[in-house]
Please model this.
Amino acid sequence: MGKVISICIPKGGVGKTTTAVNLAASLAIAEKKTLLIDSDPFGSSSIALGFTPDKIKAGISEIFDFSMSLEHAIHKTDMQYLNFVPANINSIKLDEKFSKSSENRVILRNAVRSVKKNYEYIIIDCPPVLRGITLNALTASSSILIPLKCGHLSLDAIDRLFDYIKWIREISNPSLLVEGIVRTMYERESKVTEIAEKELKLKYKRYLLETVIPVTNLLTEATFFGKPLCLYKINSKGATAYLDLAYELINKNIESLNN
Ligand SMILES: Nc1ncnc2c1ncn2[C@@H]1O[C@H](COP(=O)(O)OP(=O)(O)OP(=O)(O)O)[C@@H](O)[C@H]1O
Ligand SMILES: [Mg+2]
Model:
C-alpha cells in the first residue's frame, strides 16, 4: 500500500516543487513505484517534468470537479517507475473554489485510495498556502515532508505549519505524521545559515533530516530541459543529495519521531 507524502510549507520559493520532483525521481531510480501529483495550481512540477499543456490529457482539475477519476489523469514519464498527475490551467479557479468550501477536503483522499495499491510512494507537491487544495493534500497523506530554506522568515512558516498539522489531526486526519524537515538551498559556512540553524535546532532538532540539499543552479537548469536533475546530470552534488534524501526516507522509521 503506497505511502502518501505531501511536500508542504506555507512559504513560497523554498524548494517544495524541486524537492517533490527530484525526490520522486530518486525514489523511481531506487525502483520504488512512485506517483507524483502536482497539486499546485501554478503547475511548476508539470513544467519541471516537461509537461506542457499540449501533453496533458487530464489533471487535478478534472479530479476535483469529478469529471474524471485519478486513474485517467495518470501520465507516464521518461522513467519506468515514475508516473505523474499534472496540474492544469483551470486549477487556479479551482483553488479559489476550494479555499471556500471545507466540506470538500476528502476529495483527493478518496481519489488516491483507488490507486494506492499500485504504488509504494505517492508524492504531492503542495501550493504555498494552508487552505483549499493543501487541506485536501494533507487529509490524503500519511506524512508531511517540510522543505526549509534556512532563513528567519521560513522558521516562522514552520511554526504556523505545526499549528496547522495539529488542526488537521483534529479535524480530518488523525494519523498524519511528520516525515521530517529537509534543509534546502543549503549554504555551508554562511552566517545566515548558522544563525537560522541555531534557532531551528532549539525547537525542531528532532525533526531535522540528515540529508541537506546544497544550493546549486543545476537544479534550476534541469527544469529548462523538463527533467529531474538525476536525468540531466546524475553525478552532480544536487542529484546525489536527492538520491541521499530518498535513501534516508526509505530507511527511516518515523513512528518514533512522532511519539
Ligand atoms: N537547492 C537549490 N539550489 C538552487 N536553487 C534552487 C534549489 N532548489 C530550488 N531552487 C530554485 O529556487 C526556485 C524556487 O524553487 P521551487 O520552485 O522548488 O520552490 P517552491 O517552494 O515550490 O515555490 P512555490 O511556493 O512558488 O511553489 C526555483 O527557481 C528553483 O529552481
Ligand atoms: Mg512549487
